[in-house]
């Protein structure tokens, strides 16, 4: 029972983070019909921004969090504006746009290495209490905080998309850009904002991962792909599917590693991803897309 | 296809290229006085086979693979392990490696051929990672976490005495490069090759014109895996070292960068791309930390400024030059 | 020879084609007309294998085709063009025609890979034949140009010969005159007659009533997914239902 609870909690913690990243993928897909390989690197970016604001500048954690959010938002929007939109305007074939995001991903990783060095950096303890015991399970306080923040973010995003005028506009322009345009919605702006949001959500995930995993240049690339797997499991392009898919993936990974064999921990996500892509590409929430002829 | 050069000019150029290619290892040894530069040429030849294979898949049939290095590694491990631990001769292990890669490629393509490109790209990334982890945690034959190494030059020397130096390797590889490129050209200018291109251009219309899209996508994947698997199988005996990490995304993106930089969907593109990128990597060897940055920048340059790659760019330049000449001529004759 | 029997196609709750039957007679031009959204292209897509009908049968010379994949239907002898031109843009004009011949070729994958005698001979033959097709529509001088570099009207012609290259029993033309000017339309009229003379059978969807009345032997009129009328051009022109539908419609 004790093991079960321990695994459950750590599964939920990491699953929450996968869910956030998966959300980013789904948002981008909704807005542009594209996939960004740089999404994982937004996690890395967020972690380093956290170190920059919190450790280097010594700002309070909440301020650092908000500043990270804003910086990543601007970065995501700049990526959409500067690279993606330019390529779309040049009528480049879609595969090239995906490749361009790989290029951006490599550039981010290498630049992060140039600025912050290739050794793993550690976040100092954020909370006054290092460890917290819940239901008899002791964990890093940051882990619990991360799960709570993940849930809050998901709810906030849900409210933003459904209850605010702006969110409705975003959903509208994703569904039918022409119709939205004729209703006076600035679709190009809302696409940019969507990319920005996707980046900032991922950056927060990175800031939460920092204290648990340490910060290094390839932090995001593996986790980013797991987030993608989560999005596919839930049904690619579906916001709620992404959250559920991410959580399920985190749980599956943790339980298999805990009960069966830890050596295959990293492979589970890839195997689940391949199985879903090949067998149930519409995911749990039965989203269309994905398939060709 | 596109006759940018007239056949009259083509023949002497072809002869010149052939002479240079044949004399290259001797020239390099005279200049550099060592085998290292010849080895680089050997690696280039191996990569030409691998990247030409990727070109069949991506350049002609329009399917992306970010896991092609996994086929390279499958070929390499199969051939290397068979040769090392079962003393199977190379002429059996190399085809075995290539064929296993082909089989796995076809098996992967069977469900993957239904995926749209961005999902295909991640499915192939996942495939590469799975191959990597599989080799990484596999029961140890030798020390498989760092790949298997041959401690001595032995395996090649004993089995095939004619491959005891890089110059001999060079001609051995050159022979296969010629065969593989001829086969590629033959395949492209055929019913099957045109089916690939039709799929790349428009799957719906291809289907409507009688092309079995799914079957041809799988064939393209299998052929491509054969090329890349073969390249891996010879590579492991050339370098005598391979590590599981090669199966990961980075090496696959390297292949793709070479292909895109040279120019997709052509005979010459992959060759130019491999030579250019491999020499560039040699030049910046001291700055190896920034290799990824280089890949990233090169990819962006190609995508933004040179969508046809170097070969496509040069071809366009020649065409527009010709056109300008012709219009100038016309203008003159008008006067 | 080609027969569609009681075809019904639904998308979700919407019935796009409702219990439509039609026949294409050999050596004739059969036309399918109707106002926008009448379900003409849907029916077309159903015959050529893009959609599977919910109910009904498609029969070509006794062979059932409903629900088969597009490439099999092409091999069985039905070829088509598209409303929005669907050429292989980055292939040459000649290659486009060669792809059109795909289902009639016998060279296997291995023949292709090893450049066998069988493949070389077949290639030589079909390239010659493809040039003949291009001459037939006056495109031979562009044989080595990119298909995407042709003018709009020439693209339409190329699509038609690409479809003919498989020597189909029936060729389906989806709005072949769309976007053409008056001269081009007149040329198309002549071309269709020439195709007919070569022994091919044509089923055409078209908006241009004048052209249709000129060229067709038999006309089916679709309206809101159902068959409104059928008959010779003269009968259709005088059919009060058809006149009402067209005046009430958007044309």
In sequence order, what are the helices and strands of chain B, one letter per element?
Answer: HHHHHHHHHHHHHH
CATH topology of the largest domain in chain C: Rossmann fold
Count of individual beta strands of chain B: 0
Tell me the Rg of chain B in angstroms: 21 Å
Question: What does this 3D model show about the protein?
Answer:
The complex is a heterotrimer of chains A (293), B (335) and C (251). Chain A has 293 residues and is an all-alpha fold. Chain A has one domain (2-217). Helix content of chain A is 75%, strand content 3%. Chain A contains 11 helices and 2 strands, in the order ααααββααααααα. In chain A, helix 1 runs parallel beside helix 5, helix 6 (165-175) crosses helix 8 and helix 10 (239-260) crosses helix 11. The longest helix of chain A is centred in the N-terminal third of the chain and has 31 residues, at 2-32. Chain A is globular, with a radius of gyration of 19 Å. The model of chain A has no long low-confidence stretch (mean pLDDT 84). With 335 residues, chain B is mostly helical. Chain B starts with 6 loop residues before the first helix and ends with a helix. In chain B, 50% of the residues are buried. Chain C is of the alpha/beta class and 251 residues long. In chain C, the strands form 2 sheets. A 6-stranded mixed β-sheet of chain C has the order 6-7-8-3-9-10, with helices on both faces. Chain C has a 4-stranded antiparallel β-sheet with strand order 2-1-4-5, covered by helices on one side. In chain C, strand 7, helix 7 and strand 8 form a beta-alpha-beta unit. Chains A and B meet through helix 3, helix 4, helix 9 and helix 11 of A and helix 5, helix 9, helix 11 and helix 13 of B.
In short:
By secondary structure, chain A is mostly helical.
Topology record:
The complex is a heterotrimer of chains A (293), B (335) and C (251).
Chain A: H1 2-32, H2 39-56, H3 61-89, H4 94-116, E1 131-134, E2 137-140, H5 141-163, H6 165-175, H7 177-182, H8 187-213, H9 219-234, H10 239-260, H11 265-279
Antiparallel strand pairs in A: 1-2
Chain B: H1 7-32, H2 36-60, H3 68-86, H4 90-112, H5 117-136, H6 154-159, H7 166-188, H8 191-201, H9 203-208, H10 213-239, H11 249-262, H12 268-283, H13 291-305, H14 309-334
Chain C: E1 2-11, E2 14-24, E3 29-33, H1 40-47, E4 55-60, E5 63-64, H2 70-76, E6 78-80, H3 93-100, H4 109-114, H5 117-136, H6 152-164, E7 170-174, H7 182-197, E8 201-205, H8 209-215, E9 218-223, E10 226-231, H9 233-237, H10 240-248
Parallel strand pairs in C: 3-8, 3-9, 6-7, 7-8
Antiparallel strand pairs in C: 1-2, 1-4, 4-5, 9-10
Helix pairs in contact in C: 3-6
């Amino acid at each position: 029972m004790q093991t079960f609870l321990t695994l459950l909690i750590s599964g939920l913690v990491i699953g929450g983070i996968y869910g956030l990243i998966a959300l980013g993928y789904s948002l981008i897909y909704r807005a542009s019909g594209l996939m960004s390989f740089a999404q994982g690197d937004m996690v890395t970016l967020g972690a380093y921004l956290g170190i920059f604001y919190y450790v280097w500048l010594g700002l309070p954690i909440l301020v650092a969090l908000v500043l990270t959010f804003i910086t990543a938002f601007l970065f995501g929007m700049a990526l959409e504006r500067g690279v993606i939109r330019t390529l779309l305007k040049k009528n480049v074939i879609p595969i090239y746009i995906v490749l361009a995001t790989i290029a951006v991903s490599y550039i981010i990783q290498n630049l992060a290495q140039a600025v912050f060095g290739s050794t793993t950096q550690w976040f100092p303890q954020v909370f006054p209490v290092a460890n917290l015991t819940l239901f008899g399970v002791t964990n890093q306080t940051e882990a619990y905080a991360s799960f709570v923040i993940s849930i809050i973010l998901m709810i906030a995003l849900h409210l933003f998309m459904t209850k605010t005028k702006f969110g409705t506009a975003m959903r509208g322009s994703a569904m039918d850009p022409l119709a939205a345009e004729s209703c006076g919605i600035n679709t190009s702006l809302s696409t940019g904002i969507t990319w920005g949001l996707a980046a900032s959500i991922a950056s927060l995930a990175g800031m939460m991962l920092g204290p648990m995993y340490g910060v290094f240049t390839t932090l995001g690339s593996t986790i980013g792909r797991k987030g993608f797997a989560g999005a596919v499991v839930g049904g690619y392009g579906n916001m709620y599917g992404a959250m559920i898919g991410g959580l399920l993936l985190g749980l599956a990974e943790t339980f298999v590693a805990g009960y069966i064999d830890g050596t295959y921990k990293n492979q589970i996500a890839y195997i689940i991803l391949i199985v879903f892509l090949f067998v149930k590409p519409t995911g749990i929430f039965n989203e269309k897309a994905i398939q060709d002829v | 296809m596109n006759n940018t050069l007239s056949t009259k000019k083509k023949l002497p150029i072809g002869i010149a290229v052939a002479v240079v290619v044949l004399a290259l290892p001797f020239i390099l040894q005279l200049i550099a006085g060592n085998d290292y530069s010849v080895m680089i040429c050997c690696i280039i030849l191996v990569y030409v086979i691998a990247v030409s294979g990727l070109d069949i898949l991506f350049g002609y049939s329009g399917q992306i693979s970010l896991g092609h290095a996994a086929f390279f590694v499958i070929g390499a491990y199969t051939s290397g392990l068979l040769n090392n631990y079962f003393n199977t001769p190379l002429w059996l292990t190399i085809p075995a490696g290539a064929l296993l890669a082909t089989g796995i490629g076809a098996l992967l393509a069977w469900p993957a051929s239904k995926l749209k490109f961005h999902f295909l790209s991640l499915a192939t990334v996942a495939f590469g990672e799975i191959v990597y982890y599989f080799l990484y945690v596999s029961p140890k034959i030798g020390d498989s976490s760092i790949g298997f190494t041959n401690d001595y030059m032995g395996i090649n020397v004993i089995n095939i005495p004619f491959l005891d130096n890089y110059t001999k390797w060079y001609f051995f590889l050159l022979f296969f490069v010629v065969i593989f490129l001829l086969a590629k050209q033959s395949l492209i200018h055929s019913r099957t090759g045109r089916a690939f291109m039709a799929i790349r251009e428009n799957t719906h219309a291809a289907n409507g014109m009688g092309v079995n899209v799914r079957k041809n996508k799988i064939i393209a994947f299998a052929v491509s895996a054969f090329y890349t698997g073969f390249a891996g199988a010879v590579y492991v005996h050339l370098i005598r070292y391979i590590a599981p990490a090669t199966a990961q995304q980075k090496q696959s993106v390297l292949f793709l960068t070479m292909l895109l930089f040279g120019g997709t969907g052509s005979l010459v593109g992959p060759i130019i791309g491999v030579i250019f990128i491999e020499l560039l990597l040699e030049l910046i060897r001291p700055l190896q930390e920034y290799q990824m940055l280089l890949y990233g920048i090169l990819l962006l340059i190609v995508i933004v400024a040179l969508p046809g790659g170097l070969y496509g760019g040069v071809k366009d330049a020649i065409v527009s030059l010709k056109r300008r000449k012709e219009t100038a001529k016309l203008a003159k004759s008008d006067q | 020879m080609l027969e569609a029997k009681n075809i019904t196609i639904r998308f979700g709750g919407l019935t796009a084609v409702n219990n439509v039957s039609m026949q294409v007679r050999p050596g004739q031009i059969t036309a399918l007309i109707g106002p926008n959204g009448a379900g003409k292209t849907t029916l077309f897509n159903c015959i050529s294998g893009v959609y599977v009908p919910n109910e009904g049968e498609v029969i070509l010379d006794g062979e059932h085709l409903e629900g088969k994949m597009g490439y099999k239907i092409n091999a069985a002898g039905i070829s088509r063009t598209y409303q929005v031109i669907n050429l292989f843009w980055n292939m040459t004009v000649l290659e486009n025609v060669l792809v059109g011949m795909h289902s009639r070729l016998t060279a296997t994958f291995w023949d292709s890979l090893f450049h066998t005698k069988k493949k070389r001979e077949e290639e030589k033959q079909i390239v010659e034949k493809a040039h003949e097709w291009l001459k037939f529509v006056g495109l031979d001088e562009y044989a080595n140009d990119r298909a995407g570099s042709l003018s709009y009207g020439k693209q339409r012609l190329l699509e038609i010969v690409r479809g003919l290259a498989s020597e189909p029993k029936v060729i389906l033309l989806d709005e072949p005159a769309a976007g053409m000017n008056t001269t081009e339309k007149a040329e198309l009229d002549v071309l269709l007659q020439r195709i007919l003379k070569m022994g091919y059978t044509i089923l055409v969807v078209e908006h241009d009533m004048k052209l249709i009345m000129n060229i067709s032997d038999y006309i089916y009129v679709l309206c809101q997914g159902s068959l409104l009328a059928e008959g010779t051009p003269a009968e259709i022109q005088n059919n009060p239902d058809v006149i009402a539908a067209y005046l009430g419609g958007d044309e």
